[in-house]
Amino acid sequence: MTGMAGGVPASRAVGRVFFTDAASGRRSSCSASVVASDSGNLLLTAGHCVYSRGWHRDWIFVPSYDQGKRPFGVWRAEWFVTPSRWITHGRPEDDVAFVKVASSGGVRILDRVGGNGIRPGAATGRRRTVLGYPFLPPYRGDRQHYCEGVTRSEGRRMRMACRLTTGASGGPWLDSYDRSTGFGYIGGVTTNTDLANTTLWSPLLGGDVWTLYRYADQLR
Amino acid sequence: MTGMAGGVPASRAVGRVFFTDAASGRRSSCSASVVASDSGNLLLTAGHCVYSRGWHRDWIFVPSYDQGKRPFGVWRAEWFVTPSRWITHGRPEDDVAFVKVASSGGVRILDRVGGNGIRPGAATGRRRTVLGYPFLPPYRGDRQHYCEGVTRSEGRRMRMACRLTTGASGGPWLDSYDRSTGFGYIGGVTTNTDLANTTLWSPLLGGDVWTLYRYADQLR
Fold first, then answer.
1. What is the pLDDT of residue A7?
2. Which residue of A12, B137, B171, B213 is 20 to 30 Å from B202, comparing CA positions?
3. Which SUPFAM superfamilies does its entry note (chains A, B) (predicted)?
């Protein structure tokens, strides 16, 4: 099932990211989500949303972005953390990153919009909800969209049938998504699609990713 | 003046381009326009819309793309031609390309939608119309937008005050744009914007570019 995240499963903890791409020098966009971390200022996104032949610049996160509206403000990246293998080899199974954002007016982003839980070791083969901001047709980047489906493992990645396009990269794959609260548990992150836009992929989030998460969360 | 190219200055000879980016491996989009060439199948676009650390793949042109509609069909690239300096040095003043597309059902694209004229040696300091398909906010890539203004030279480039965003790259800068026909004379091509999206840049289209044009037009 693919649809517009209006009313039913839209999440305040998911937002659109804007940045200047290091490879092209041009403005681009991705998706990201808030993690229910100790620091309260940690986001999950894709590795290529922070690093592509260099670190991206002027990186901002707009939770719950909707047709130009920024209901919970704009949050600036302070730190990027991605596996060193993503930088050295750029393989899709390492395409994950955490982003530390600055508090805004003394308020942590987690306290402003909430965040998704960590439950390391979650398996594939279960039903998940994918959220993000695709911007290529038939989407326009202007609002949050979602897919729901069962994930299948594929080597060190997993896949789900989903028609979201470029721009959905970095959006979360959530277990036990609660439509009333808009939160769930992090089970993956969108990194790739196929040419026909029928399938999305995520890395399997294993122990090395959660080690990276703990490292990222204590940066200050 | 910036506005939506609905009714007044929309051009059939300008379209949206979709391709798989060689640098990122992901689908992306640009703009391009048909040239009134002898071959009848030549487009003008930006260099980075065909080459970025490799030649882009699965490159299609949709003239007059409008909210998912493809009123004049989809045209596939057969050849890309860009200055060798764009490939070796990637400087913005060389960021231009010509694309030869395949006829569709025996019909040349120029015969289907028309094209903009060549008038080598046109100067800066004159009033021009810029057209394209910006997709970052406040735009959504779903329809043609335009700017009109006076161009100013800046080294080997020229600039114009214009708020179009990423995705407008490759769109034409036209002299003597005729709002009734939707055609003009090629005076430049959008290649860059600034972070605040207040200004666009184009290379100065000099003799070397028109030599490249003649080479591209005879490819078959």
1. 43
2. B137
3. Trypsin-like serine proteases
